[in-house]
């Protein structure tokens, strides 16, 4: 017998916030809706497509390739009552509709004063499409990857083409096919692709293996930004008797630093000097420290003096090829010039637990209100618009 316990988990809709700054959020998330694969999978694989099922308790789950994925909402906690914020939503009714419905998402963006948003995948895809790349049948994995991108194009981006920055996934189990999918998406306007930030932790070849060269080459060729989301390759190695959620979230900055250093030392941004890499949800507090450390190990220890035959130092390449995203960083925003004021962008992280929705405008005013107006413009929208080649609204604030 199916047991469904309904709960009033959501708060009433908040009032729209006054817009003090035009905001482009480069890190939000969508929750894949139950019908996203319908009509988008080739006939031989149609019956094998991911689908939403219910367990005996009435919880909704994704089922794919013989596995079940229990977090149908995956931290989609925006707008939930405080007593439910720490609980993963188990049904679509437990989430704000803006998590998975594009019309409702635009309403929630307007409430928050957000002009445009880049959205990462959620549970069934993994933050980087990794679930589809681990299938027993590579043909099925590629078909589902392409279907996910087709849904993003047709159902999520095209209804509001100025408001959603299209970020796709690609097939990770075959670098040539992965590169072809990046080119296919770029040809129809995609601006970004999300990749696993530390692929060796997922059983994929490491960044140092040469395996990823075709994919990075395709990104450089098509002006596709590589978006690396913290946690896309799993969480930190945590002690089993510790507070796993709290400790894991605390270490986001450390995880982002580690991934950034690996991408830097992999040589990929040297071999592909025009590639652009955006680090998401790690904050910026560690970036100035990393730059100092890179200079120190070259000047004091001599490590990395042969990093680039043209004479560029690792810190130079970090400041050239990498962009950094921040929710607020009130104590470390003053390191912005050491990082590069033109390489920092804002993120809202809707609908996750770190999100500032619906009060992003107030957070920006409180944490960055002391900044010069021209710098505030760069952080809140100009840097993102330039990186993702994205239009701004007719009226820009401030």
Could you please say which CATH topology applies here? Answer: TIM Barrel
Number of helices: 12
Q: Which architecture name does CATH use?
A: Alpha-Beta Barrel
Give the total of beta strands. Answer: 12
Strand order of the largest sheet: 7-8-9-10-11-12
Largest sheet: 6 strands, parallel
> Given the helix and strand composition, which structural class is it?
alpha/beta
Rg, nearest Å: 21 Å
Secondary structure blueprint with pairings:
Layout lengths: L23 E6 L21 E4 L5 E5 L2 E3 L32 H11 L3 E5 L17 H20 L6 E2 L1 E2 L6 H13 L4 E4 L17 H10 L2 E5 L14 H7 L1 H14 L2 H4 L5 E4 L6 H15 L12 H8 E5 L9 H4 L4 E3 L13 H9 L4 H15 L11
Helix pairs in contact: 3-4
Describe this structure as you would to a colleague.
The protein has 398 residues and is of the alpha/beta class. The protein has one domain (24-47, 99-387): Alpha-Beta Barrel (TIM Barrel), CATH 3.20.20. Strands 7-8-9-10-11-12 form a six-stranded parallel β-sheet. Helix content is 33%, strand content 12%. The chain is built from twelve helices and twelve strands. A hairpin with a 2-residue loop joins β3 (60-64) and β4. The chain is globular, with a radius of gyration of 21 Å.
Descriptive tags:
single chain; 398 residues; alpha/beta; TIM Barrel; six-stranded parallel beta sheet; three-stranded parallel beta sheet; 12 strands; 33% helix
Q: Quick recap of the structure?
A:
This protein is α/β, with parallel strands linked by helices and 398 residues long.
């Amino acid at each position: 017998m199916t047991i469904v316990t309904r709960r009033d988990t959501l708060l009433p809709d908040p009032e729209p916030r006054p817009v003090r700054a035009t905001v482009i959020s480069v890190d939000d998330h969508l929750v894949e809706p139950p019908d996203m694969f319908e009509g988008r999978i080739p006939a031989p694989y149609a019956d094998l497509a991911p689908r939403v099922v219910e367990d005996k308790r009435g919880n909704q789950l994704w089922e794919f390739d013989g596995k079940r994925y229990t977090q149908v909402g995956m931290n989609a906690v925006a707008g939930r009552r405080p007593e439910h914020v720490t609980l993963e939503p188990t049904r679509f009714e437990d989430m704000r509709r803006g998590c998975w419905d594009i019309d409702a998402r635009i309403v929630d963006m307007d409430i928050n004063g957000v002009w445009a948003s880049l959205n990462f995948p959620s549970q069934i895809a993994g933050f980087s499409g990794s679930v589809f790349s681990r299938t027993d049948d590579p043909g099925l994995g590629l078909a589902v990857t392409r279907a996910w991108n087709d849904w993003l194009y047709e159902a999520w981006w095209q209804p509001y083409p100025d408001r959603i920055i299209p970020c796709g996934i690609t097939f990770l189990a075959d670098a040539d096919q992965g590169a072809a999918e990046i080119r296919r998406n770029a040809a129809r306007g995609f601006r970004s692709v999300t990749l696993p930030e530390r692929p060796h932790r997922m059983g994929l070849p490491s960044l140092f293996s040469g395996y990823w060269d075709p994919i990075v080459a395709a990104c450089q060729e098509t002006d596709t930004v590589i978006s690396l989301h913290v946690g896309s390759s799993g969480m930190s190695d945590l002690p089993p008797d510790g507070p796993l959620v709290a400790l894991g979230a605390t270490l986001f900055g450390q995880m982002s630093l580690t991934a950034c250093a690996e991408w830097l030392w992999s040589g990929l941004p040297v071999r592909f000097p025009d590639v652009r890499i955006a680090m998401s949800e790690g904050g910026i507090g560690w970036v100035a420290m990393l730059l100092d450390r890179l200079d120190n190990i070259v000047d004091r220890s001599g490590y990395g003096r042969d990093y680039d035959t043209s004479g560029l130092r690792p810190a130079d390449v970090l400041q050239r090829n990498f962009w950094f995203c921040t929710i607020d960083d009130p104590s470390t925003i003053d390191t912005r010039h050491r990082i590069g004021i033109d390489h920092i962008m804002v993120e809202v992280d809707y609908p996750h637990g770190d999100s500032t929705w619906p009060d992003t405008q107030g957070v920006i005013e409180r944490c960055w209100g002391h900044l010069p107006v021209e710098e505030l413009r760069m952080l809140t929208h100009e840097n993102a618009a330039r990186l993702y080649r994205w239009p701004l609204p007719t009226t820009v604030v401030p």
